[in-house]
Amino acid sequence: xxxxxxxxxxxxxxxxxxxxxCQGCGRCCGRSPGYVWMTKEEMADIARHVGMxxxxxxxxxxxxxxxxxxxxxxxxxxxxxxxxxxxLVYEVRPLQCRVWPFWPSNLTLPQAWRAASRGCxxxxxxxxxxxxxxxxxxxxxxx
Length: 143
Ligand code: SF4
Ligand code: SF4
Hints:
By secondary structure, the chain is an alpha+beta fold. The protein has two domains: 18-23 and 100-142, no CATH class; 31-92, no CATH class. Helix content is 31%, strand content 17%. The chain has helices spanning 40-50, 54-61, 95-99, 110-117, 131-142; strands spanning 18-20, 37-38, 62-65, 68-71, 82-83, 86-87, 123-129. The longest helix has 12 residues, at 131-142. The radius of gyration is 16 Å and the shape is elongated. The relative contact order is 0.23. Residues 22-28, 100, 120-122 line the site of one iron/sulfur cluster.
């Protein structure tokens, strides 16, 4: 687990919570090369959601890379599930999409959060997530 910067009182730097509200800009879903990892179970759920046999769904939309399964990208690097700025499988999107921006890597240091927020206008906007909510999301990705 990555080291998390602590405040003087020993609490994580984000112990007072962090604000986030997705602005729907779609930047985290494309425009540059990336990886949207999913488990086999997530892939099967998504295939069911779109009404396709899993094998056909995998062949059409998913590629296998060294770490596992990730969505293919369009020529402009958008995730293949992004359509008109909207995620076609939002309700069943993979964990890494659901947990953003509370990824362990963004929570190590305030600087890491700030750096990530430069590409995501939803970070530091909107309602405050309580420390407990953030930890629950972070732990989902930390496994
Ligand atoms: S980059 Fe941030 S604000 Fe834009 S769609 Fe992704 S999560 Fe939402
Ligand atoms: S699965 Fe949906 S939320 Fe995740 S990157 Fe693709 S379009 Fe975005």
